[in-house]
Amino acid sequence: MIPAPRDATAVERVPLVTNRSRVARARDELVEAVGDALPG
């Protein structure tokens, strides 16, 4: 019974990391877009 939750977290951990990197990348792109739109 104990290995089951560990497998679940191990499987969930990979998509979490990819989602975080995608969010960070999208946020950086958004910051750059807003920075380009702002004067100065």
Structure commentary:
The structure is a single chain. By secondary structure, the chain is mostly helical. 88% of the residues lie in helices and 0% in strands. The protein contains 1 helix and no strands. It has one helix at residues 3-37. It starts with a helix and ends with a helix. The model has no long low-confidence stretch (mean pLDDT 75).
> What coarse outline follows from CA principal-axis ratios?
rod-shaped
Estimate the strand proportion: under 5%
Average pLDDT, all residues: 75
- Supply Rg: 18 Å
Biggest pleated-sheet summary: none
Distance between the termini: 60 Å
Q: Order of helices and strands, N to C?
A: H
How much helix is in the residues? over 70%
Question: How many helical elements?
Answer: 1
Give a short synopsis of this structure.
The chain is mostly helical and 40 residues long. The chain has one helix at residues 3-37.
List keywords for this structure.
single chain, 40 residues, mainly alpha, 1 helix, RNA polymerase sigma-70 factor, ECF subfamily
Compile the SSE list and pairings.
Elements: H1 3-37
